[in-house]
Write a structure and sequence with these properties.
Helix 11 packs antiparallel against helix 12, helix 11 packs parallel to helix 13 and helix 20 packs antiparallel against helix 21 (about 335-345). The N and C termini lie far apart (about 55 Å). The protein is mainly alpha-helical and about 500 residues long. It has helices at about 1-15, 20-30, 35-50, 50-65, 70-85, 85-95, 100-115, 120-125, 135-145, 150-165, 170-185, 185-200, 205-215, 220-225, 235-245, 250-260, 270-280, 285-295, 300-315, 315-330, 335-345, 350-365, 395-410, 425-435, 435-450, 465-475, and strands spanning about 370-375, 380-385, 455-460, 480-485, 490-495, 495-500. The protein has a six-stranded mixed sheet, covered by helices on one side. The chain is built from 26 helices and six strands.
């Protein structure tokens, strides 16, 4: 019987990419007794594929069968809700647990950070007795703060961790190295690298990859090689990505040729995409086009989308038109590819082209993902969609946003209405731009916090050029430090300047 239970649990895990509801139905219709093994596998699968509805069904069955006192199962359930970004139900599970161990609390800290509630995670951490924390507790908080662009706070907790004599592990070092990389802190990076060597973690491949990425983002790739770290295809991918997003054209070429010629590593599609993106961002569109033509493999949709974005940015209509047609011929499943082509047609005033792309999306069943931005104010998360008027203070937000826009116009800001693909009047285009989700979140953040307060916004899509300019100017006019996390990277705005150097 025990072997059969393990067999079903193993079968559910193997079918993780299939419908969880189908697996659940097969298990219940099999007539076998449902055990904790089965429920654990089902709940984990639901969390892995973010199947919230099926996860709730498993939760109901778990309670019905009397497993609510099973600490392991309840922790798995909490983790599932967190991965589905349903922090309300995760907190409810946490509060209703009759007992909690350090693993439960670590999972809750990770979940709060995953759902962009770092202040709640810090509160939960500080309420723990010092003796109850383990290295996993510290790792959950440090890593979570790093993912929420709270790098400085994460490094402070890392310092406290060492002062309290907690022994670091591989996961600690990877998190701290990544934070130093994101913040481009070369002095801290060298200190952390020294600690890696002292702790004996330098031979672990994930640590080596993180160190390469750190030095690359700090502009010190050659120093990494001098330290004796042997790179592989993953480390070179991190280096090329960093060069692409920092505008380091020469360094990117050197890294690519070093990978191919010195280390005999065959480039993957991801390496080629980084190189095309690097060349095109720097204005070398024809060089990038020639690079694509000479590739030994055919470009995929992601590569062509990256190239098209640069063609549009540099207003090269000839190349953008050719790349857009090739992109649509690939029949990509990601809506971003179609939106990029549609935006290009809108940029050149081809409304028929815009309509054709939208018709194609409808025929192929492709749905445009709606832009959404989140901001946490006074421990409450507020979400905004483009053109959103559902917020209780929406009228005040729009009024305040208009005041900010006027301040910006007084110093020369001109809305980039080329971002609006609709065939409408110029004033209407400005109104549409006004309602972009990140602008609404930023206006709400400024009106809801004391002057000089730093705040973070999270967006599910790539920030548009107009909103990028807007955020930079607002940081200067209002004297604010604004951190924006979009689908591409972190942007740190301060005194009118973004950390990305306008490469994103």
């Amino acid at each position: 019987m025990l072997q059969r239970n393990f067999s079903w649990a193993r079968r559910i895990n193997c079918m993780a990419n299939q419908s969880p509801s189908r697996n659940f139905h097969q298990l219940r219709s099999s007539g076998r007794k449902i055990t904790g093994f089965h429920l654990s596998s089902i709940v984990k699968t639901c969390g892995r594929v973010e199947a919230l509805q099926e996860g709730r069904q498993a939760h109901c069955l778990l309670l019905k069968l009397g497993f609510n006192a099973d600490l392991f199962l309840m922790t798995t359930l909490l983790d599932m809700y967190s991965k589905c970004t349903n922090i309300h139900d995760a907190c409810r599970v946490f509060d209703e647990m009759p007992q909690r161990d350090v693993v439960v609390i670590n999972s809750m800290i990770s979940g709060l950070c995953r759902c962009h509630l770092p202040s709640y995670a810090i509160d939960l951490f500080t309420k723990m007795n010092q003796s109850d924390r383990d290295v996993g507790t510290w790792n959950s908080l440090i890593s979570g703060l790093g993912h929420n662009s709270e790098g400085r706070a994460a490094l402070i907790f890392f310092g406290r961790m060492r002062v309290e004599g907690v022994e670091v592990d591989v996961m600690t070092m990877i998190s701290v190295i990544s934070i130093c990389a994101d913040m481009a802190m070369i002095v801290h990076a060298q200190q952390v690298h020294g600690l890696v060597i002292k702790s004996g973690f330098e031979l672990y491949l994930p640590v080596g990859n993180a160190i390469v990425d750190m030095y690359a983002k700090c502009g010190s790739f050659h120093q990494m090689e001098m330290e004796g770290v042997v790179p592989n295809k993953i480390t070179f991918l991190g280096t090329l990505y960093a060069c692409s997003h920092s505008g380091f054209l020469q360094e990117g070429w050197i890294s690519f040729t070093t990978m191919v010629n010195k280390y005999s590593i065959a480039p993957t599609m991801e390496h080629y995409t980084c190189m095309v993106d690097l060349l095109a961002r720097a204005g070398g569109l024809y060089e990038a086009h020639e690079f694509i033509e000479k590739m030994p493999i055919k470009p995929d949709a992601k590569l062509l989308t990256a190239f098209l974005s640069s063609c549009c940015h540099h207003k090269n209509v000839e190349l953008a038109s050719a790349v857009g047609k090739k992109l649509l011929q690939l029949q990509p499943q990601e809506s971003g590819a179609y939106i990029s082509v549609s935006n290009f047609y809108g940029l050149v005033g081809d409304m028929e082209g815009v309509a054709n792309v939208r018709r194609l999306m409808l025929e192929r069943g492709i749905r445009k993902e709606k832009a959404c931005t989140w901001i946490e104010i006074s421990r409450k998360v507020h979400s905004f969609e483009s053109g959103d008027r559902s917020h209780p203070d929406y009228q005040k937000i729009y009024d305040h946003l208009r005041v900010l826009i006027q301040k910006m116009k007084n110093i020369g800001y001109v809305p980039d209405t080329s971002m609006v693909a609709q065939n409408v009047e110029e004033l209407t285009k400005e109104v549409i731009l006004l309602g972009h989700s990140e602008k609404l979140a930023i206006a709400f953040g400024i009106m809801s916090t004391p002057p000089g307060t730093r705040f973070l916004i999270i967006k599910n899509l790539r920030v548009c050029a107009d909103c990028h300019v807007f955020t930079g100017l607002i940081s200067k006019i209002e004297g604010r430090e604004i951190v924006a996390r979009d689908s591409s990277r972190f942007h740190h705005f301060k005194d009118g300047v973004c950390s990305c150097g306008n490469y994103w």
